[in-house]
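[job 0412] stage=complex_fold ligand=S-adenosylmethionine status=START
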Amino acid sequence: MTTIPHGYIRAVLGPREEVLDGILRRSLLDDRLPTIQVDDNAGRVLQLLTLLRRPRQVLEIGTLFAYSTIHLARGLPEGGRVTTLEIDPRAAEAARRNLRTAGVEDRVDIVVGDARAYLETVPPGSVGLIFIDADKKSYPDYLRLCYPLLEPGGVLIADDAFAQGDFTAERTEGSDEDREAKAIHRYNRAVGRSTRLFSAFVGTQSGLLVSVKE
Ligand code: SAM
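[job 0412] stage=complex_fold status=DONE, emitting structure tokens
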């Protein structure tokens, strides 16, 4: 959505590592999974936020082939873990392989199934960082379910915060095709109104909305 100067970023921060390049090729070209993973700089932002927060427990909603998961896992402190939730068993299988290839499989648990069912089992206040990147229509539900799980000072991150540039969806009456954008705006507005979350948008390709629980 945002135009990102990928060439410049690579020139400054270095090219994509070979291991990540191989994971992308295998997952997109061989497995034919959809190209809806975070962009490289957004991956770096996830790793950076994890490095800053040093969470013992990270929760990710929407694994796909674990591109974002690898970045989260790389940012963990000693003994930290990522639990990542994925509804599609074929994607989860590719994720398992990719986590092995990246050498982070010992820090990640993949839970296959509907994220909502799992979220209801997580003890309140037990998670240091949550990354929401699954079905967009459920974003308001994910906010309701995830907020209590965060420890004080915990970080909440939502991808696709710019709703693919569909900023008019807030004002139009809901036809099926604009419901995803509407749900994202509902999430953004709720986060923006909250007096218990401090938030900022980060201008990655699809936009991250990053919040800290005060
Ligand atoms: N976070 C990944 C990355 O950046 O590499 C991309 C995730 S992709 C945008 C969204 C994923 O969420 C898909 O793989 C989809 O199968 C999964 N998903 C959709 N609905 C879900 C649900 N209710 N529970 C768990 N996963 C779900």
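The chain has a mean pLDDT of 95.
[job 0412] exit 0
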